[in-house]
Amino acid sequence: MVRPVIGGRAEYRRLLAITLAALLLFGYGLGAGTLWDQDEPKYAGVSREILETGDPITLHSNGRPWFVHPPLFFWLQAMTGWAFGFTEATVRIWSAISGAGAVGVTFLLARLFYGPATGVLAAAILATTFQFLVQSRLGVFDPTLVLFMLLALYMYLVAYTGGSGRAAVWAWVWAGLATLTKGPIGLLLPAMAVVGLWLVRRDWSAWRRTPLLGPAFFCLIGLSWYLIEALRHGEPFLRSAVGYYLFSRFFGVVENQPGPWWYYVPVLIVGAFPWTAFLPAAVAYHARRRRELGSQVILLWCGITLLFYSLAGTKLPNYILPVYPLLAIGIARLWEEQTAGLMRMATGLLAATAAAFVAAIALYGWIKFPAEMLDLRVPLAAAAAVFAAGPLLAAGLLLIRRPPPALAALLLTPVVAVPVLVHLTLPAMERYRPLPRIARAIAQEARPSDAVAAVAMNTSASLGFYSGRHIIWVESPDDLVGAICRHRRLFVVVPPHQPSWWTPTSLPAGARLQGEDRGYRIFLKEGPGPCSGGEGAK
């Protein structure tokens, strides 16, 4: 049975309480730890350049036009940066707000299908799902995109199940805001799910019930930026924003981010923790009830999203973030029904998924950062113990048929883990993240006319964000000679693993070592460089 649109003070208070609780979880210690290269500082830098250039339409990165993503999320970051300054917390706050909003909309969706009790549980499951929790604490736009897409889906379903035409118009408005956040995918994913619903239910006339005002609002909100930029910049914008970052992202590999067709299987296993053990049972449960509207929407949304991104040539873990809200609803309904056979299946998998989660994180760390893993074994072991203890305890409680405390153990696992990460693990990891310290040291010593160059480090956006300067990315000897020639005072940052062409003699004889941090070295070149063709230094 489909419930009516939310109404009454009690339900509004419940929705508000759910959203605020999620915001508290996502926002606790939000400023702990410096920004993670490369997306967090890159996006924060783009937002700061909105204020520096005074141009909110054409985005800039490192002083150059940047046509990768639409501007809505960067407008939001720029607003809080203008009001409160650019800090780790202000850079990340909109992800926390959006994630909390998505938790609230998940409650509304689950309530629409199954009632408020399922809604509360689904919201709690989403807020404590590992990948969604992590993404909602990072300064990236994926939670904002998910919020708007969920709102579009919810408003469409309200209209589809007997609401007014106004709800359908709002669905287009939210899809427009999703498109203004990350491009046409903001409309494409909800639209594919809706069309799939029409096909499954054989409701061929549903498209006729869409008011024409809705698409008009979508075009005004979602496509106007593309039109303005196409008029302002012409072919360079279309080739980059549409050709490369839209079509090439799906049909090819962008920015060296490939992956096999099964790429998202391990991502989902780790990302859905501690609820991973319930995924097979939830799929089986809703497959049996595939004639019900709620199960149809859950299966269609999750299946289409996973299939779409699995077929895409470019793959990143954050792409499947939209899956988790509907998965949370599916798992919540399974818990409410507690079908004996399916719950036994999930119980058997709980211990295995706890071990797999800890092993996957540990294996990744040992492969990528072996020395750091050994030194950080105490804070990392504390976090691993928290993540493993909850599912193991829940498995034991389910074996003795105590579902309520087992559910509480799973819900509390990420809630307890967040303070451990904020106060123990992240501070310990900071000593292995030297670039923010290097950038701040340069910012304190540099003069307004000085320049900063980085050798073979073009993915290290934190260097630019924390120094507050545009970085000259040096990828060849000619790049270095050009930087030396153009700037009288030049800071040069060299990573521990230098390219084959680099030697200390690559810099002029007068250059001196200014400092060193975990293998990164800072040189300062003063005076004119060996310029060719009469070119002088600034």
* Poorly predicted spans: none
Radius of gyration: 25 Å
**SSE arrangement, N to C:** HHEEHHHHHHHHHHHHHHHHHHEHEHEEE
What is the count of DSSP helices, taking H or I runs of 4+ residues? 22
C-alpha termini separation: 73 Å
Question: In short, what is this structure?
Answer:
The protein is mainly alpha-helical and 538 residues long. Helix content is 65%, strand content 6%.
Which helices and strands, and how do they pair?
Blueprint (H helix, E strand, L loop, with lengths): L8 H19 L11 H15 L6 E2 L2 E2 L6 H13 L3 H27 L1 H12 L2 H6 L6 H19 L4 H18 L2 H17 L11 H21 L1 H17 L12 H8 L7 H10 L4 H19 L11 H15 L2 H29 L1 H6 L1 H23 L3 H27 L5 H11 L5 E5 L6 H6 L3 E4 L2 H10 L3 E5 L17 E6 L2 E6 L13
Parallel strand pairs: 3-4, 3-5
Antiparallel strand pairs: 1-2, 5-7, 6-7
Helix pairs in contact: 1-4, 1-5, 2-3, 3-4, 4-5, 4-7, 4-15, 5-15, 7-8, 7-9, 8-9, 8-10, 9-14, 13-15, 13-16, 14-15, 16-18, 18-19
What do these coordinates show?
The longest helix has 29 residues, at 340-368. Strand 3 (451-455), helix 21 and strand 4 form a beta-alpha-beta unit. The protein is built from 22 helices and seven strands. The chain is mainly alpha-helical and 538 residues long.
